[in-house]
């Protein structure tokens, strides 16, 4: 295991939140008469929410839509499940004194609520304060590396979308792709796992 710092995405890596997102987005569609279905929304998961709306060409009531959607995700929090074995591998990382951080496009408040509910104990969370700081911009990853005082070649980012891959590549760190998340597997992903046991073997833990 060459990594001293492992950075994790949330949706599609720590938690399976697809049903939560689907219900929340469908409620948002009904509320604001939005034409874009969940499949169109899902393609953009991993980006900051306002960027998702831009990509969907939704330009009216953007702030109100974001507020409403986020409230719905909290209302539907019981539909969020952790991936099997997540707590197991977190304990392995901690036992081996490997630093753990989160870099996510989800806001910090909701991230903390979800992790607390699922009893996932990772304290260091980096979320964008504006669109420019969000993935695929490497800003948050670079900030995380600097704060933890490790080298780039001692760090990896575990994600599940092409936006995660781009952020890791631009930060010049290794990227590990979770094939069970929101994104599709691509040939350019060199390190891939489908479940926690695969990840344990992949990292030689």
Protein described:
- The chain is of the alpha/beta class and 205 residues long.
- It has helices spanning 18-32, 38-42, 49-55, 62-75, 86-95, 108-118, 139-148, 162-171, 196-202, and strands spanning 5-8, 15-16, 81-82, 99-103, 125-126, 155-159, 174-178, 191-193.
- The strands form two sheets. A six-stranded parallel β-sheet has the order 5-4-1-6-7-8, sandwiched between helices.
- Strand 6 (155-159), helix 8 (162-171) and strand 7 form a beta-alpha-beta unit.
- Helix 1 crosses helix 4 (62-75).
- The model has no long low-confidence stretch (mean pLDDT 97).
Give a brief rundown of this model.
The chain is α/β, with parallel strands linked by helices. The chain has nine helices and eight strands. It has two domains: 134 residues, 3-Layer(aba) Sandwich (Rossmann fold), CATH 3.40.50; 62 residues.
Could you list some keywords that capture this structure?
single chain; 205 residues; alpha/beta; Rossmann fold; six-stranded parallel sheet; two-stranded antiparallel sheet; 9 helices
Domain count = 2
Strand content: 5-15%
* Spatial gap, N to C terminus: 6 Å
The fourth-level CATH homologous superfamily of the largest domain is: HAD superfamily/HAD-like
- SS class: alpha/beta
Name of the top-level CATH class of the largest domain: Alpha Beta
CATH topology tier name of the largest domain: Rossmann fold
By DSSP (H or I, 4+ residues per run), the number of helices equals 9
Task: Name the helicity range.
Answer: 40-55%
Q: Report the order of strands and helices.
A: EEHHHHEHEHEHEHEEH
Report the C-alpha radius of gyration, rounded. Answer: 16 Å
Summed over residues and divided by their number, the pLDDT gives a mean of: 97
What ranges have pLDDT less than 50 throughout 5 or more consecutive residues?
none
The rough form would be described as: globular
Specify the CATH architecture of the largest domain: 3-Layer(aba) Sandwich
Count the E strands: 8
Sheet with most strands: 6 strands, parallel
Please give the order of strands in the largest beta sheet.
5-4-1-6-7-8
